[in-house]
Design goal:
This protein has 121 residues and is an alpha/beta fold. 44% of the residues lie in helices and 12% in strands.
Length: 121
């Protein structure tokens, strides 16, 4: 789908551009995403190439021992956050990420964005 939408006149060209905008302008956290979606990974690689590898940080939650961690960094500059096991260990990591993000958002003088906190679900 992504490669077919390379022409600016293609009906999916606007969607392709929106994905590029998201990747370029926002930190990403991949949770429960197989990282095999050709469309998203091609978009990420294209934007990395366009910006010389200088993008907002991206992260992926992977179970400890997943052999894709090194490839994700080398090819896509995705930092892996490892967790021990599915279930409560994964929930605990997500809660810690939320707490850290909220602490940064609350203190824009310390590098935070001053953005809204992430609500608990």
């Amino acid at each position: 789908m992504y490669r077919d939408a390379a022409d600016d006149k293609h009906p999916l060209a606007a969607a392709r551009q929106q994905v590029r905008n998201l990747i370029s302008n926002h930190p990403l956290l991949f949770i429960g995403f197989g990282l095999y979606d050709e469309y998203v990974m091609d978009a990420l690689a294209t934007v990395l190439e366009m910006f010389g590898g200088n993008l907002r940080p991206s992260y992926a939650l992977l179970k400890t021992g997943d052999d894709r961690a090194e490839q994700l960094w080398k090819k896509y500059r995705i930092t892996v956050i490892a967790y021990e096991n599915h279930g409560q260990p994964l929930v605990d990591v997500i809660k810690q990420i939320r707490a850290d993000a909220n602490a940064l958002a609350a203190d824009p003088g310390d590098g935070g964005s001053g953005s809204q906190p992430i609500p608990a679900s």
